[in-house]
Amino acid sequence: MKKLNPNLMVKDVKETVGFYKNNLGFKLVMAVPETQDGILTEIPEDKKIVYALVKNGNVELMFQAEESLKEDITFFADSIIGASVSFYIEVEKLEDFYKEIKEKVEVVKELSTTWYGMNEFYIHDNNGYILGFAEEKKMMKKSKNKQVQNFLEEIMKFDSEKFEILQNLRKIVFSNYPKTNERIMYGGIMFSLEDDFGGLFVRKNHVSFEFGSGAYMNDPHKILEGTGKFRRHLKIRSLADIEDKKVNFFVKQSL
Predict the structure, then answer these.
(1) Which domains, ranges and CATH numbers included, belong to the chain?
(2) Is the pLDDT of residue 15 over 90?
């Protein structure tokens, strides 16, 4: 086998090419008019198009008008436009691409991280076909502690959002203190250098970042929670909370 080029049955080839060009960055490679008297590299306003090939990077898609495809391949006679299949397209800089197109198209599944390590989202095109866009999640370096790594992998399988939160919080810790040691303790991840200074604990609705000396931290906006003699914590319910609750500000004070 050499390559796969899906040929999608569509209502209007010209309209479909416009959708893919204007919203998804595809470029027209070639088109065939209804008269089938030549190959076009641009689509004129005054001609009906029955076939087109578009391309973006290494991804090529063919579009063929419904009546034309049913004529060429007769067993499509009773078929309808659309299919019980999704087209899974890997892209670079997925988050930027998502932000660029999400207001232009019908998103059927929001951007999220899967248990198998892919960031992905899904849309409907103008004919109802489902397109998935994906990028492999750039994972933080595996933990040197086998128990911590196993813990993270289990969280990734069952709650991708909390896994994402944990990874971002770990990144902040190791960015500030590269020689940090981590281990499993009290059912969570405990951080230490000479002594323990903080830990991450997965709760039902949030991830708790516990600070052993939080009571002595500078907290002008009263973000830290807890009333104990020494400890304070942050409840992180979303990735946005990491910045909103100034996690890096408090991590810098934890030693």
Answers:
(1) 1-81 (3.30.720.120), 90-138 (3.30.720.110), 146-251 (3.90.1150.200)
(2) yes
